[in-house]
């Protein structure tokens, strides 16, 4: 079994870009968010007491079954290092520690107003294509959309709460927060930090020729451009499309930028 690590964190915060860069390394497999986290949760639920036959399943069996999920899913991968991506992995930090004692989690983060801005920008760009983000429902306003994704069970709110749980939890020493702003302005520093965090040999990445295309997936989700990665890693300053009051509502949510709110042992680049 190859080494396995995880990419998690907030949406619209660079996880696809990070995966595209990691894929340049021939030792590494990485990609966009996949189905394993959902299968993981479903298996846990089906092996719980709600299943009348759960009396035949103890924790040792649960652990072997869950480990087997990863073994079988990646059985045909020749990579020596595998990164599985999903925003919900931060929720499962204690379980990941039990299953994969050497695994680390890279959590991509970004200032919250710009996460919401990025989502809204995609919605406004695809005005004739209702998105899966909002159950393919047309209409609404920037306020209803922002409130929806920022809710505790929303596309942004749920990963944000999971991220905070991981950052303040007992497993935070195996967590590295990668800020979108650092990744796009100093990708060499970011990748070097990641390899050192993983105890993996450094790799000379090409930041001017990045390639990762999942156009078909995005179009089927009614959200063209959701996982589009530019060919060159660079920061692109822009004005927000959010109204000022909505933008300002989320400006203090980036707890990783406040030294007084960063727990001891949490690593950030």
Automatic annotation (TrEMBL):
UniProt cross-references to SUPFAM superfamilies, sorted A to Z: P-loop containing nucleoside triphosphate hydrolases
Organismal lineage: Bacteria, Bacillati, Actinomycetota, Actinomycetes, Mycobacteriales
GO MF entries: transferase activity
EC id: 2.8.2.-
Pfam family, one: Sulfotransfer_3
Transmembrane segments: none
Keywords recorded for this protein, A-Z: Transferase
Enzyme class: transferase
Protein origin, superkingdom: Bacteria
Annotated protein name in UniProt: Sulfotransferase
């Amino acid at each position: 079994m190859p080494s396995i690590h995880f990419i998690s964190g907030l949406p619209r915060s660079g996880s696809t870009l990070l995966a595209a860069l990691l894929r340049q390394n021939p030792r590494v497999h990485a990609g966009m968010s996949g189905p394993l986290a959902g299968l993981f949760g479903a298996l846990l639920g089906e092996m719980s007491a709600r299943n009348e036959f759960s009396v035949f399943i103890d924790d040792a069996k649960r652990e072997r079954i869950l480990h087997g999920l990863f073994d079988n899913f990646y059985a045909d991968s020749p990579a020596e290092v595998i990164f599985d991506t999903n925003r919900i992995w931060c929720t499962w930090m204690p379980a990941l520690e039990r299953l994969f004692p050497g695994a680390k989690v890279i959590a991509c983060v970004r200032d919250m107003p710009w996460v919401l801005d990025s989502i809204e920008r995609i919605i406004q760009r695809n005005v004739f294509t209702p998105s899966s983000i909002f159950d393919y429902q047309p209409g609404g306003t920037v306020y209803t959309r922002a409130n929806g994704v920022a809710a505790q069970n929303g596309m942004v709110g749920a990963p944000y709460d999971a991220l905070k749980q991981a950052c303040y939890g007992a497993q935070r020493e195996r967590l590295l927060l990668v800020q979108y702003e650092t990744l796009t302005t100093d990708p060499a520093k970011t990748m070097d930090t990641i390899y050192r965090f993983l105890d993996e040999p450094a790799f000379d990445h090409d930041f001017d020729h990045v390639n990762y295309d999942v156009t078909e997936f995005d179009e089927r989700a009614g959200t063209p451009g959701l996982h589009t990665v530019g060919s060159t890693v660079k920061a692109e300053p822009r004005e927000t499309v959010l109204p000022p009051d909505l933008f300002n509502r989320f400006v203090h949510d980036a707890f990783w930028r406040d030294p007084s709110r960063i727990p001891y042992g949490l690593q950030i680049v």
